[in-house]
Structures are given as structure tokens and as C-alpha cells.
Amino acid sequence: MLQGRAVLIDLRNETSVAGIINVSDGHMTCELTQAVFIDRNGEHHAFDNFMVRNRMIRLLHVPADLDIGAELLQQQKHRKRVGQAKTKAKPTFKQKRAEERHKETLEHVTKLKNVKST
């Protein structure tokens, strides 16, 4: 979603880095190109490549021209389509047991509501 876009990332150690996201993974580890590291004193240090580990990120500033809501909906729809293909697999014992307990809980809640309403 943000690959190829210029971003500003605030880090946990009161520093920041700005650059173009080249690679990012599902854990938010980002590799930036044409990066500028801004230290605590406000000094700028240029880097060709800069990697930010996920646990160091405090805040990622999303570009103003990006409609993040629409992007997230698109990602969610794509993941649902991918997930639907996997539903043909046989459920495990743990999944069956969880589903049975969920149904029992729903039945119990329904009975309690009926008792309270009468």
C-alpha cells in the first residue's frame, strides 16, 4: 500500500527518518531508499538505504494524498477472497469444539434474554 511512497517515520528513541518505502513486511519492518535520518538535535544525515525494525516505530505519517480508508477496505476485500479459497479444508477438532461451545453460549444467552423479558 505504501511501497514507492515518501513517508516520515517517528522512532521510539525521539528520532525520525524520512524516505521512500522500498520494502515493507506484515510486521511493519520497513526498508527506505533515499532516506534522511533526523537525530535528536535536529541534524540531518543522508542514507542511500535505511532499515527500520518494527519495534522501533512509534508513528508512521501517512501521505495526505492517500485515502487510507479506501485502501484498507480494498485490502480487506482482497484478504476475504483469499480466505474463501481455504474454507474447503476439513475443520480441526479444536475448531469444532470452539464452534460447539460458541453455539452453546449463544443458546444460553438467548435463554437468559427470554427469561428476563418474561
Summarize the structure.
Helix content is 36%, strand content 32%.
The portion of residues forming beta strands comes to 25-35%
What is the helix/strand order?
A: EEEEEHH
* Rg result: 23 Å
What's the main sheet like? 5 strands, antiparallel
Q: What oligomeric assembly is this protein in?
A: single chain
- Count of strand segments: 5
What this model shows, in words?
The chain has helices at 68-84, 93-117, and strands at residues 6-11, 16-24, 30-38, 44-52, 57-61. It contains two helices and five strands; from the N terminus they run βββββαα. It has 118 residues and is of the alpha+beta class. The N and C termini lie far apart (53 Å). The mean pLDDT is 88.
Give the SSE map.
Elements: E1 6-11, E2 16-24, E3 30-38, E4 44-52, E5 57-61, H1 68-84, H2 93-117
Antiparallel strand pairs: 1-2, 1-5, 2-3, 3-4
Descriptive labels:
alpha+beta; 5-stranded antiparallel beta sheet; 118 residues; 2 helices; elongated; single chain
